[in-house]
Structures are given as C-alpha cells and as structure tokens.
Specification:
Largest sheet: 5 strands, antiparallel
Keywords: Signal
Protein name: DUF3060 domain-containing protein
Helix content: 10-25%
Radius of gyration: 16 Å
Distance between the termini: 31 Å
Organism: Actinoplanes ianthinogenes
Structural class: alpha+beta
Strand order of the largest sheet: 1-2-9-8-7
Order of helices and strands: HEEEEEEEEE
C-alpha cells in the first residue's frame, strides 16, 4: 500500500508540474487554472498552458485577443470562451493591463 500511495503522489506531482509548464512572469498558475496579465501595449503576448495569447485591442469591458491563431472577444462578466482546448474569461481591464483567467 505505501508504494501505491507514493506512486500516486509522484504522478500527481508530475501532472501538476506539467500544468505549470509554460507559465512565465505574466502568468500565475494554480492546479487547474492560470491568471494571465497582459499589458495593453501593441504586440503584448504570453504563452499559457502551451497556447500563445496576444493582445489585440480593448475598451472598458471588452478585450480582443488572438489565441492559437484565432481572434476571440472576451467580455467582462460573461461566460468563458473555448479556444485551443482552453477556457478564457476576462477578469479585469485597466488603462494599463488586462487580466484573463485560463483553464483546461
């Protein structure tokens, strides 16, 4: 029994590490989701969970990103949008940055 538990813990740790792979300074990851912060600069981009997300435009409540080659518009308070096998939802928009939640 202890060997099975140890093996299960190792597998869980490996899966957790796999989820965190691809996270950078602009990405904060938990077990099942990441928070992405993008500056509202031209060409600001980040890789999260193996998918590239690039800032395109924003207004007070809406952000357009290019994700995995597709343009997607996210609206604050609306349901997540699925792109590239991931769920994207808009958390906040400020004058200098946007924050997006990404989950598998």
């Amino acid at each position: 029994m202890p060997r099975r538990r140890a093996a299960a813990l190792l597998v869980s740790a490996a899966l957790g590490a796999a989820l965190l792979t691809g996270c950078s300074d602009d990405v904060s990851c938990g077990v099942d989701q990441c928070t992405v912060t993008l500056q509202r600069d031209t060409n600001a981009s980040v890789e999260v969970l193996g998918v590239e997300a690039e800032f395109v435009s924003a207004d007070d409540d809406t952000v357009t990103l290019e994700v995995a080659g597709q343009q997607v518009t996210l609206t604050k308070g609306q349901q997540a949008v699925e792109v590239g096998g991931l769920q994207f939802s808009l958390s906040s928009v400020t004058k200098s940055a946007i924050q997006v939640q990404v989950s598998k």
